[in-house]
Amino acid sequence: MAAGNSIEAAYVQRMLPTLRQLQYLKLLAEHRSFSRAAEAAHVTQPTLSAGVQELEKILGAPMVDRGRSGVILTAAGAEAVARAEAILAQAEDLVQAARGASQPLAGRFRLGVIPTIAPFLLPKALPAMRRRFPKLRLYLREDQTARLIVALKSGGLDAALIAMPYDMTGLDWADVEEDELLAAFPANHPLSAERRVSPERLEGEDLILLEDGHCLREHALAACGLSPPRAGDEAAFAATSLPTLVQMVGSGLGVSFLPAMAVDAGLADAAAVAVRPLAAEHPSRQIVVAWRAGSSRAAEGRLLAGVLRGEEG
């Protein structure tokens, strides 16, 4: 009996986790519930539970603590999930590379887009993409830059349409266009009489920006060398979106900055807002398509950037 146990133990030690088991653990970490993780994996709860238990045997350590309040990852489980995400992302890359070897941008492609780009660039780009790549199944996710990059690195997205400058460690990218940043103020503001507005003229004005997390906030401040409103300043306002920001400026609450692509799309047309160029050295942000460094979707990312630039195939 002891010999049989030792043989079984040696066999388990030689085994490697399967992708399915790693996927079960990843879903369990995301949903914190065996039943919800099983539903997401399209398997029964006993099947998922057995897969996680087998993974624990192979790795020689408990992955989760099972309590009444839900599933909690152990330290070993958290480390395993981090490594599993990278392994699963590479496996997904392998599958997509094989499928796309003969025909790029065919099948599923998961693209993240930040909110200050999506409504203004995509409406004119998507019809061209559908014409050039009729077999493409594009899944769009709109979110802030930090969360999109996390999804990129974990394999949840294939590429993301974001704005630089930003910390791009671990990513590669292709340029799409340079988007000028413009000063915006109430239509009856004294600065509306000027053709170009220097950043110094905006100092002392009530500055309205997008709330923390939107990279356009940092881009505008950096381009103009301005400091953000002080935390707790009762005179400071923050907007949750560009349309809200425009309405706040038009209502006389303060001045702000708008990307040229949004102005060209008519964002400021329905509000009492004046828009002027900034007299600064580089008042712009760089729009790029980004992907994980080393990803098999790199060629498709560059191709997508070309489509967004308006290049014909």
Description:
This protein has 313 residues and is of the alpha/beta class. It is 43% helix and 22% strand. It contains eleven helices and eleven strands. The strands form three sheets. Strands 3, 4, 5, 6, 9, 10 and 11 form a seven-stranded mixed β-sheet that branches. Strand 3, helix 6 (118-132) and strand 4 (136-142) form a beta-alpha-beta unit. Helix 2 packs across helix 3 (34-41) and helix 3 crosses helix 4. The longest helix is centred in the first third of the chain and has 26 residues, at 75-100. The chain is elongated, with a radius of gyration of 25 Å. The termini are far apart.
Entry summary:
With 313 residues, this protein is an alpha/beta fold. The chain has eleven helices and eleven strands.
Topology:
Elements: H1 2-14, H2 19-31, H3 34-41, H4 45-59, E1 64-67, E2 70-73, H5 75-100, E3 107-113, H6 118-132, E4 136-142, H7 145-154, E5 159-164, E6 171-186, E7 208-210, H8 215-224, E8 237-239, H9 242-250, E9 256-259, H10 260-264, E10 273-277, E11 284-292, H11 298-308
Parallel strand pairs: 3-4, 3-5, 7-8
Antiparallel strand pairs: 1-2, 5-11, 6-9, 6-10, 6-11
